[in-house]
Design brief:
8% of the residues lie in helices and 49% in strands. It has 236 residues and is mainly beta. The strands form four sheets. Strands 8, 9, 11, 12 and 15 form a five-stranded antiparallel beta sheet that branches. Strands 13-14-10-16-17 form a five-stranded antiparallel beta sheet, with no helix packed on it. Strands 2-7-6-5 form a four-stranded mixed beta sheet, with no helix packed on it.
């Protein structure tokens, strides 16, 4: 009888422990100030200091760090009011509203995921800046306008022999206008039939003169697909 009583008490104790360990979730919220309310175009989500507050039916609360696997639908490729989600489990999903803005020109919305990138390349004694079409949702390019600017100690060589435009489509034309000081170059590329853009392909190659820190930036990018114009953020 003693053995049976001890066995019963042991089983009851184990069941109590299991019941305590399986706490039921009553609600889940996001801890205040875990996320910003606005983000610049292409800005990444920072999860440092982001927590979900889990409340159990017992009344106990727990701060759970938000991980990348818990976040969905966060997108800063285009501007506007948006919502992303923090999922704790299938029954507890928190909506987080946010706004994406264009930090270069606040009045110009970004409505395409198309992006250009700018990087440097050395070939012998020559120094070039290469513009690539990095990503995008535009199937055809009819025209593109962009401005390259440099620091005062770096001059851009705008001779047409040094400005090469690459595309798989014929009849592509371009025009380049250099500023009087040689530190700003406005480039217009156009094609009546629309030029397919290959992801990762070289869009243009520009030779530059001078040394210094070679700090060149690419901004004021506008592209058109023949139907409407799209403004792009400055190239990284």
């Amino acid at each position: 009888m003693k053995k049976f009583t001890l066995l019963f008490l042991s089983l009851l104790f184990c069941m109590t422990l299991i019941g305590c360990s399986e706490r039921k979730v009553s609600s889940v919220t996001v801890k205040p100030n875990s996320f910003k309310s606005s983000y610049a175009v292409d800005e990444q989500l920072n999860l440092d200091g982001a927590f979900a507050i889990v409340t159990y039916t017992s009344g106990d609360k727990e701060n759970v760090p938000v991980t990348p696997f818990m976040v969905s639908d966060f997108d800063t490729s285009t501007t506007g009011q948006k919502t992303f989600f923090v999922t704790y489990d299938k029954d507890n999903v928190v909506e987080v509203p946010y706004v994406v803005y264009n930090d270069e020109y606040a009045s110009r919305p970004i409505e395409t995921t198309a992006r250009f990138t700018l990087y440097a390349e050395t070939a012998g004694d020559d120094f070039y800046y290469i513009v690539r079409f990095a990503q995008g949702d535009l199937s055809a390019l009819c025209a593109a306008t962009m401005t390259l600017t440099s620091s005062s100690d770096l001059k851009i060589d705008a001779a047409l022999s040094n400005l090469e435009v690459f595309t798989d489509v014929n009849n592509l034309s371009f025009d380049a206008k250099l500023s009087p000081g040689g530190t700003s170059l406005k480039i217009v590329v156009f094609n009546d039939h629309g030029a397919p853009l290959e992801i990762g392909g070289v869009f243009l190659r520009l030779k530059v003169l001078g040394g210094g820190n070679r700090a060149v930036s690419l901004a004021n990018i506008t592209v058109t697909d023949g139907v409407r114009d799209y403004y792009l953020p400055k190239a990284n």
